[in-house]
Amino acid sequence: MQERLKARARELLGDGVVTRVLGWKKGEFSYDITPAVFESAEELERDFVFDGFCGANLSKYLIQEASKPGKGKILVFLKPCDSYSYGELLKEHRIAKENVYAVGIPCEGMADADRIRARGIDGILGIEHEGEDFLVHTLYGDERVSVKEALAERCLSCKSKRHASCDELIGEEGEDVPDDVRFTEVARLEAMTPEERFEFWRGELSRCVRCNACRNVCPACSCENCVFDNPASGISQKAAADPFEENMYHIIRAFHVAGRCTDCGECSRVCPEHIPLHLLNRKFIKDIDELYGAYRAGESEDGKNPLVSYTEGDVEPSVVNERGRA
Amino acid sequence: MQVNEEFVPTIVAFCCNWCSYAGADLSGTNRLPYPANVKIIRVPCSCRVNPTFILRAFQRGADGVIICGCHPGDCHYTTGNYYTRRRMTLLFSMLDYLGIERARTRVEWVSAAEGQKFAETMRSFVKDVTALGPNRRLEDLRCRKD
Fold it and tell me: CA of A249: which chain B residue's CA is closest?
């Protein structure tokens, strides 16, 4: 697949359709893949990577890259879940669409390097899909890990293999994946008593170091001036001085993307403390689906987001007290 | 000197200028008693209430937060309270998900003619929050007064 993407990118660069390519390259370690902009075929040849560690969602980078004056069109590779974030950003008019050439690429799920390393596999050089397994190339030879045991958390409950919006497709279009396991964890938490839930979230959120990575990576968090950077917000400082600040930060972060979150799972992927932040976002998605009808952010450019629309017969907020009491 | 050991909650009530605030006025002019520990904050519309306001109120020592607005369909700005309704439903659900007691937050629709309802709502809300005791899960220790 990597060679196919490279070849297509070279072609489009050569034809002058695009002037730059937004893709992935190796970071400090080979499992530490980072987004990158390539301006020439040589750079592409040397650095471009597409393998099982390319989890990074490129859509947010388009906000800046596509608005650079006089720079021409940029090619971007979008996995199915990234294409939803892209769709949502287009809907919010955050991306200059005329400057983007979006190429949809298939995705069989991305690997979590931590899960592979936890199995004692070290010196990772690369990773490939091979049938039901991941083939991990290491300094000490190749290792096989079954896909289920190495997949990133968010890919275990993949929501779609079908692209929401793109200009061109490489490979075959997949299908929606039924939501059967996506909300299992949220439902498990909902079934707990409030005391247990409180303990659970205290345990998770108290690890937060306020690195702001979840905010910075989130394609829905695209405000130029963020409330958390405002000293008057009281929560702009780095380390939280009180547990309240952790709660405040995470509630507000999740609330600000409610109804716009496409559940791409980037927040949890980048969290250095492995806080399951997607569970907060998924709670909002689940509530919106249950209370206001199924809604999938980023799916289309039309229609209104659930939090900026209403119906006269919406449920009253007291529904929260009634739910789960029966 | 006698010290009152009984817990008296601090309640913050966000009241819409066009209905509930006038409703509170009416309950006053009608001599309808409601607990004095309800602190009313006047807002131009219940829709003005940002979720941050509610969290902030808890941080600064509120034990319960209630939002009062016009009845759905009667908003002075036509649609404000419809948005409040969705927003607060989701926020309260999230607070519940994080293990914060459900009865600490409430939304009530009180019109300018409902002085009676305002006083009753406040009495029942204060009763519920008193039963819960002080807010410990969503407080900021730095803001604690005792």
Answer: B52
